[in-house]
Design a protein that fits this description.
This protein is mainly β and 331 residues long. It has 2 domains: 23-35 and 42-78 and 187-220 and 248-331, Beta Barrel (Elongation Factor Tu (Ef-tu), domain 3); 80-185, Ribosomal Protein L3, Chain: B, domain 2 (2-Layer Sandwich), CATH 3.30.1430.10. It is 8% helix and 33% strand. It is built from 3 helices and 15 strands. Strands 1, 4, 5, 6, 7 and 8 form a 6-stranded antiparallel sheet that branches. It has a 6-stranded antiparallel β-barrel with strand order 2-3-13-12-9-14. A two-stranded antiparallel sheet has the order 10-11. The radius of gyration is 24 Å and the shape is globular. The protein starts with 38 loop residues before the first strand and ends in a 6-residue tail after the last strand. The mean pLDDT is 92.
């Protein structure tokens, strides 16, 4: 047999942008379609931490069917969102353009930390204008703000979110959004146990890292020319330049990422105790409604995570019975 060359393809996808995110709040770039009764297609929560639960496996294809198994879970604290406005969008060749917008008259005081609150705002006429343009509106969204103060986070400035109103009829969706104006929305009215969601957020920042940690390239042998944690070659002679495909050091982490089809194991209320002994590390106690999500979620503790209806069409599924939630100390 002849000598076979070892296959060592590039480690790390070139499909991702590896630059720092502009903001800590993940931006929803697209929304799924919805052809049922009107509802909001998203929510937001703060990542508290992780623990594990003991469940009875309910998948018949699993070798552990009907047996207990331990599953890692993430807890997102979800204080109620306050709806402060409605915004409609036209569909143009250059993307979505704002058609009309209507805010409530009495905006919350803490919103002044985020934006300039208009002194004389004609809320009724703005809402009427939006209603008149419904025939040409392509997408309807509500404008909502988070309440980090209620989650006992060390900041008062709220985050402003746009959440799409899903409906089969635009007028029906407008009436639904109009009924939410000035009110608070809880997570159990948007998502329920057994649903799949997409999580959108910014990952943990790790600063500038070398190509071994950043792209997972091979560490060279000790007989190489002075360096071991660098690529073996910077590229070919022609083209006589270093291409972007060559692994180099640079920013690692603090990137916006979307994780698809995460299963909600439980939507809990603030009366239930989900906080482990001593509180979550670097977070504290969960004092509001929460979402128990299977697996891990991007970002560190306290990071805002946006939940969205699944854009890749995962349906609702049956959830395994939760026998026990581990509340032992994570310190």
């Amino acid at each position: 047999m002849g000598h076979r060359k070892k296959n060592a393809p590039h480690q790390g996808s070139l499909s991702f942008r590896r630059v720092r995110a502009k903001t800590q709040k993940g931006k929803v770039r697209s929304w799924p379609t919805w052809d049922s009764n009107p509802k909001l297609l998203g929510f937001a929560g703060f990542k508290a931490g992780m623990t594990h639960v003991t469940v009875i496996e309910n998948r018949k294809s699993s070798p552990m069917f009907n047996q207990e198994r331990i599953v890692p879970v993430t807890i997102l604290e979800c204080p109620p969102l306050k709806v402060i406005g409605i915004r409609g969008y036209y569909y143009t060749s250059e993307g979505l353009q704002i058609a009309a917008e209507a805010l409530i008259k009495d905006l919350p005081e803490e919103l002044a930390r985020k934006m300039i609150i208009p002194k004389k705002y004609k809320a009724t006429s703005r809402l009427k204008t939006l209603q008149e343009r419904l025939g040409s509106i392509y997408e309807l969204r509500v404008i909502a703000i988070t309440n980090p103060k209620e989650a006992k986070l060390p900041r008062k400035k709220p985050d402003i979110l746009e959440i799409k109103v899903g409906s089969k009829d635009m007028k029906e969706g407008f009436e639904f959004a109009k009924s939410l104006l000035g009110k608070t929305v809880t997570v159990d009215t948007v998502f329920e146990t057994g649903e799949f969601v997409d999580t959108i957020g910014v990952t943990k920042g790790k600063g500038i890292q070398g190509p071994v940690k950043r792209f997972g390239i091979k560490i060279l042998s000790r007989k190489t020319r002075g360096v071991k944690r660098k690529p073996g070659a910077l590229g070919p002679w022609r083209p006589a330049r270093t291409m972007y495909t060559v692994a180099h050091q640079g920013q690692h982490g603090y990137h916006q990422r979307t994780e698809y089809n995460k299963l909600i194991l439980k939507v809990g209320t603030k009366e239930e105790n989900i906080t482990p002994a001593g509180g979550f590390k670097k977070y504290g106690f969960v004092n509001n409604d929460f979402v128990l999500m299977k697996g891990s979620v991007q970002g560190p503790a306290k990071r805002l995570i946006t939940l969205r209806n699944p854009i890749r069409g995962k349906n609702k599924t049956s959830v395994p019975e939760i026998v026990q939630i581990s509340l032992t100390s994570k310190m």
